[in-house]
Design goal:
The complex is a heterodimer of chains A (114) and B (110). Chain A is mainly β and 114 residues long. Chain A is built from no helices and 11 strands. In chain A, the strands form 2 sheets. In chain A, strands 2, 4, 5, 6, 9, 10 and 11 form a 7-stranded mixed β-sheet that branches. A 4-stranded antiparallel β-sheet of chain A has the order 1-3-8-7, with no helix packed on it. By secondary structure, chain B is mostly beta strands. Chain B has one domain: Immunoglobulins (Immunoglobulin-like, Sandwich). In chain B, strand 5 and strand 6 form a beta hairpin. Classes of the chains: A mainly beta (114), B mainly beta (110). The interface between A and B is medium-sized, with 23 and 22 residues.
Amino acid sequence: EAGVVQSPRYKIIEKKQPVAFWCNPISGHNTLYWYRQNLGQGPELLIRYENEEAVDDSQLPKDRFSAERLKGVDSTLKIQPAELGDSAVYLCASSLDMTSNEQFFGPGTRLTVL
Amino acid sequence: AQRVTQPEKLLSVFKGAPVELKCNYSYSGSPELFWYVQYSRQRLQLLLRHISRESIKGFTADLNKGETSFHLKKPFAQEEDSAMYYCASYSGAGSYQLTFGKGTKLSVIP
């Protein structure tokens, strides 16, 4: 079992460019989370999915961020256009369901916006 | 909003010395609290949760509702304990949103 898979691991883009991150959760995990971790901070939730439904996206900056989990398995997080302040590590996590109190994290994607 | 406070960014101890990583939370109800750990070049992973009342790798954490604390302790630090430690809490009834502290970097000196 590879655990939660994320790609790419690193991404460098210029501001105003679009960027997308991909996540494949652990097989059988219904709940998927996207977090953003700024330097020196803990992870902050951006969006949570129960199967294909986004049930908590209150922290997602909807003017430039979007996410989807069309078949309730893989998920994509997109930023368009990226800003300098978006530089961070984007973490994906999954759990069996929303009541499961253990989340399994992926390795993250480190985004640098120049 | 739920807050989790870890007052120390960095904690250095000698091998064999006791360790205490501090965590305070703001939720006034019945919180669910966790410690996550990230070793160098590894992914974030759950270390322990308060409802299990377990000891993992020699670490324990006791929930103190009076002091709203959930400090992580180990009587004798080992070099392999060097890592980033994050305290986390569920925000409240039905929310299932995990709120993390800023983390404490533990460095165990040989």
